């Protein structure tokens, strides 16, 4: 649901607050880097998949640190992905001790 505060923001402030320019720049860079692959299924599908990955938080996988730290959403997405990968470490009596 739209909050009254969101509707009170000018459009450019809302876009800046949500880091839309960061994601648009990244999407265009990804598009240009992978233009041969994208020509097979189209630009619209690429943007759809890109922004779906942003919503799902998978857009940070295999990305450089500067991108992960660029926005609050990226940092949260990284922490969620990290937690999903390593949440079972140390459970069931496991430990990190190693023998040499």
UniProtKB/TrEMBL annotation:
Coiled coil start-end: none
- Tell me if Amino-acid biosynthesis is a UniProt keyword of this record: no
Q: Where in the cell is it found?
A: Cytoplasm, Cytoskeleton, Microtubule organizing center, Centrosome, Centriolar satellite
Where does the UniProt entry say this protein principally localizes?
cytoplasm
**CDD domains found in the cross-reference section:** DD_C11orf49
Name the InterPro entries on file: CSTPP1
The protein's superkingdom reads: Eukaryota
Q: What keywords would UniProt list here? A: Cytoplasm, Cytoskeleton, Microtubule, Phosphoprotein
Give the family, as the similarity comment puts it.
Answer: Belongs to the CSTPP1 family.
Task: Give the quaternary structure.
Answer: Interacts with PCM1. Interacts with TTLL1, TPGS1, TPGS2 and LRRC49; the interactions link CSTPP1 to the complex TPGC. Binds to alpha-tubulin.
Query: What biological function has been recorded for the protein in this entry?
Result: Regulator of the tubulin polyglutamylase complex (TPGC) that controls cytoskeletal organization, nuclear shape, and cilium disassembly by balancing microtubule and actin assembly. Regulates the assembly and stability of the TPGC and thereby modulates polyglutamylation of the microtubule, which antagonizes MAP4 binding.
**Name of the protein this chain belongs to:** Centriolar satellite-associated tubulin polyglutamylase complex regulator 1
* Species for this entry: Rhinopithecus roxellana (Golden snub-nosed monkey)
Encoding gene (name): CSTPP1
């Amino acid at each position: 649901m739209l909050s009254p505060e969101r509707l009170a923001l000018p459009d450019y402030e809302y876009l800046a607050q949500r880091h839309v320019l960061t994601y648009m720049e990244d999407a265009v860079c990804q598009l240009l880097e992978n233009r041969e692959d994208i020509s097979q299924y189209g630009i619209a599908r690429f943007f759809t998949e890109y922004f779906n990955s942003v919503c799902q938080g998978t857009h940070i996988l295999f990305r450089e640190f500067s991108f992960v730290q660029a926005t609050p959403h990226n940092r949260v997405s990284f922490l969620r992905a990290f937690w999903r990968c390593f949440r079972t470490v140390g459970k069931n009596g496991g430990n990190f001790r190693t023998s040499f």
